[in-house]
Each structure stands twice: as structure tokens, then as C-alpha cells.
Amino acid sequence: MGNLFDLTGKTAVAIGGNSVLGGSIAKGLAEHGAKVAILGRNLEKANKVVQEIEENGGKAKAFEADVSSRDSLEEAADAIEQWSGGWDIVLNAPGKNSATPFFDLDMEEWDDIMDVNLKGIVVTCQIFAKKMIEQERKGSIINISSVSSTTPLSKVFTYSVSKAGVNSLTQYLAREFAPHGIRVNAIIPGFFPAEQNRKILSEERIASIMNHTPMDRFGEPEELQGAAVWLSSDKASSFVTGALIRVDGGFGSMTI
Questions:
Q1: What is the per-residue pLDDT for 208?
Q2: CA 236 remoteness from chain centre
Q3: Which of 12, 102, 180, 241 is the most exposed place for a label (fewest CB within 10 A)?
């Protein structure tokens, strides 16, 4: 069974791999044999993830990139191609959030969040998937969505809309890229406290979350690794594309 999840010889590009969740997934891919390019605006954080991967016997390199800038992503793609020759796995894990109420929301903030969470993934897929197709490399694209994409949450209006767009984009690209042997899926994480959402996690909100989470706890970042490794493996998930995989402690199964 172990061979089903062996990523040896694969190269993964982790956009947002310097974040808590993206970094944890990147480490999981490296632990299963993939060489990982860690992309992020904060090169210091990206290098920290690289160091942790290397200390565990893996291979990785940090690249500076701003997901809201096409030029920045294209430069990073060229640098990664020189480093590895190409890639087989693309992890899209950028994330930006805001707790601004709907009537206080201005279009500058809207555009800023959309540029990272949705437009950034569109541009990333244009750049990195195109290179895969040109090189005739089959592989896997994994987009990170959110529970708020299917059940809109209070206080995160723009974030919820952007992640709903990620779900739609994932299923569209699954159809678009299937003839090229590229699978496109999304992981829908539940509540994994990280930098971008701690500011809205009041005691009252935490209690509400727990009341709607059958497993009655937050997720640990490492608990996303299994789904990501499975979706990255051409053997283990060879017939899986266009899927929205929940890793949410049962949050999506709750109603009242």
C-alpha cells in the first residue's frame, strides 16, 4: 500500500507554502518523496519551511512570489523550471481574509482579497498548468478552498465568495485539463486556526464552531497532509478529478 502514496521523482510547487496550512501540506508531500518549491511573498517564512523539510531528509527550495502579480509568478515559474526541469504537482494555498461587515466593505478590500484567493489561483493555473501541458507532464493540481465556500459564514463575506469561486474553478478546470492527464481537485478544510482567522475567533465564535463540528475540536495542520498526498498520487487517486474533499471534522454534515 505504501507504493500508492510514493511521490519519489515528483516535483511539487506549493504556492502559499510559507503559510501554516500550505507549509504543513508541503512538508507532507516532501515526506512522501516529492521535491518541493515553496512560493511566498515572505521569503524568510518560505526558507523556514525549506529548513524544516531538509532537516527531515527532504528536498526543497524557497522562491519569492506574489500571487497577485502575474509577472512575479512567471518569474518564479521560470526559476523553478531551471531548478527542477518542471513539476507534476501544484498546490494552490494562498489565503487572505477580512472581518469587514458587508455594508462597510469597499471595493479596494474586495479586490485585494479576490486578487489573492481567486484571481491568484486563476493566474497560477494559467502559468503552471500551461507549462505542464507544453511538457506533456501529467499530474495533479490541488486548490485549497474553505467550509465557507459551501455554507457562507458570518463576518467573512468576501472570503466566502472567493472560496466559492475556487470550487467552481476547480470543477471547470477538471473538465478543461482532463484530456491532458492533469487532475484538478480541491480540499475543503474545516477550522484550522491560523494567522488569517485568529482575529475573528472570539470565545463566542469558537463555541459556535464547536457546536457545529461533530468531532468537537479544531483541526491540526498535519491532518490535511493525507488528503493532499492522496490527491497528488497518480496511483492512489488516478480516477479522481473535479472533487471537493472535505477535511472538516464533520462541520459540513451539520444543520441544526
A1: 85
A2: 19
A3: 102
Q: Is 17 exposed, middle or buried (0-12, 13-18, 19+ CB in 10 A)?
A: buried
**In the numeric block, which cell numbers belong to residue 228?**
493532499
End-to-end CA distance of the chain: 39
pLDDT of residue 198: 60
Cell numbers found for residue 133: 501541458
Phi, psi of 95 (to 5 degrees): -160, 135
- Between CA 18 and CA 63 the distance in angstroms is 10
Phi/psi class of residue 141: alpha, beta or left (left: φ > 0; alpha: ψ in -120 to 50)? Answer: beta
Residues of the chain with pLDDT under 70: 1-2, 194-200, 256
The residue behind cell 472570503 is 159
172 is annotated as an active-site residue: no
Residues 6+ apart with CB under 8 A from 255: none
Question: What pTM did the predictor assign?
Answer: 0.94
Pairwise CA distance, residues 150 & 167, whole Å: 9
Which residue of the set 63, 87, 159, 230 is catalytic? Answer: 159
Do residues 138 and 234 make contact, with C-beta atoms less than 8 angstroms apart? yes
Placement of cell 526558507 in the chain: 47
The residues spanned by each domain of the chain are: 2-247
